[in-house]
Amino acid sequence: MLRRVNAALFEAPPGALIQVVADAQGNNGVNDARFEYAGQILPRETILGLPGCSFTVADFGERLEAVVVFDPGAPGSARYDLFEVENGVRNDLQKSTRHSDSTPLISFTIDPVMVAIRSGSRAAAPRPLRKAARRKARKRTAVKRKPAKKKPAKKPARTSRKRAK
Question: How is domain 3-112 classified at the architecture level of CATH?
Answer without folding.
Answer: Sandwich (2.60)
